[in-house]
Amino acid sequence: MNFVKMHGLGNDFILIDCLKQDLPDPQAFAIKYCNRRFGIGADQLLLIYPSEIADFSMRIFNADGSEVEMCGNGIRCFAKYVWDRGLSQKEILDVETLAGIIKPKKVGELVQVDMGNPEFRPEKIPVDAEGDIAFDIALEVYGWHARLNCVSMGNPHAVIFLEEDPKNFAVLKYGPAIETHPIFPKRTNVEFAFVKNSKEIIMRVWERGAGETLACGTGACATAVAAMKKKLVENKVTVHLLGGDLLIEWQENGHVYMTGPAEEVYEGTVKVPQIA
């Protein structure tokens, strides 16, 4: 099986081109080969397929084998793979995902992605909460009283604004407890954020099904729009993640635009026996 190792700000992926080869059991492959000790090592597995309604289709599997709707860093890597290998000459791609059609655009050496409209209604995230908007939800975890601001960017996010830089925050303790809390029927990604000023946010992320990662594109978008909705920042901000920076803009058309890098690390092949 041929694969390419890629990353967006340290959020890393195994990408397999299923236009040319078949991967019979992607869930089992993700569990085995995303393992950093016994496999290739990655946060997620990205698969490229043909599409009847778009230029390509992208499927995404977490390291624990669960399939997810969207990944912001992943789709930038996906687009770079397509362009670098001449699979499309289009400057803007239409990519079918479980979150709908996503449109990555080539911007110099970077990739800008139209992430669509954020969703704040509890039933659309989903989160078990009342009201028209799922903000300021009180939740006690291990004696810590958190206030969650829930947003969907095609996948669920719970954004928590802290009063200081999250660099020393106990993400590994609280992240998994919130991810799997019963109020989230599909689990959730969790962002721990600090608003540095009106144009900058510092963030760490606990990704659903992957653990803490160095970056999360949809998480950066969710955090930025939650801060914008609460009037904590302007409509264009830089989000500082452990792996680097993303530029997030919420435009007047209601769409969120994310701009950042994507890099290829290496190509490889792996023998794929029947995976038990």
Summarize the structure.
The chain is of the alpha+beta class. 16% of the residues lie in helices and 40% in strands.
The unreliable regions are none
Total DSSP E strands: 18
Query: What would you call the quaternary organization?
Result: single chain
CATH architecture of the largest domain: Roll
Major pleated sheet: 18 strands, mixed
Determine the structural class based on helices, strands and strand pairing: alpha+beta
Task: Just give the CATH class of the largest domain.
Answer: Alpha Beta
Task: Assess the beta-strand content as a share of residues.
Answer: 35-45%
Task: Give the count of structural domains.
Answer: 2
Percentage of helical residues? 10-25%
Helix segment tally: 4
Distance, first to last CA: 17 Å
Order of helices and strands: EEHEEEHEEEEEEHEEEHEEEE
What's the alpha carbon Rg, rounded to whole Å?
18 Å
Determine the CATH topology of the largest domain.
Diaminopimelate Epimerase, Chain A, domain 1
Full CATH superfamily name of the largest domain: Diaminopimelate Epimerase, Chain A, domain 1
Query: On the 0-100 scale, what is the average pLDDT?
Result: 97
Tell me the overall shape.
globular
